[in-house]
Amino acid sequence: MSAIVLIAFLFVWGVAKELVPLFKKGFIKDSVLYLAMLVIGAVLSICTIQLIDLPTPMVLLEVVYSPMLKWFAPE
Q: pTM to 2 decimals?
């Protein structure tokens, strides 16, 4: 539980330290991208701490590259 609190604290610190100045300078696209990456990182970190089983991204690569593998594979 303390690790989740630490991640939440680091998330708030990252927003206050990095995101607020980006908004003030007018870098709206950069700040939205930074916020999206920060949220994704925090959610994935919490899922890892809670031992939530997430699907591997290799499944997507297998689907994309399996036709190419069948094409190049010897018969």
A: 0.67
Task: Please write the tens of the pLDDT for every residue from 30-55.
Answer: 889 989 999 999 998 898 889 888 88
Query: Coil, helix or strand for 1?
Result: coil
Tokens 């018969």 -> residue: 75
Residue 2: exposure state from Cβ atoms within 10 A (0-12, 13-18, ≥19): exposed
Separation between Cα atoms, residue 47 and residue 54, nearest integer Å: 8
Of how many residues is the chain composed? 75
Average pLDDT, the chain: 87
Interatomic CA distance for residues 46 and 67, integer angstroms: 36
| Angstrom distance (rounded) from CA 1 to CA 75 | 54
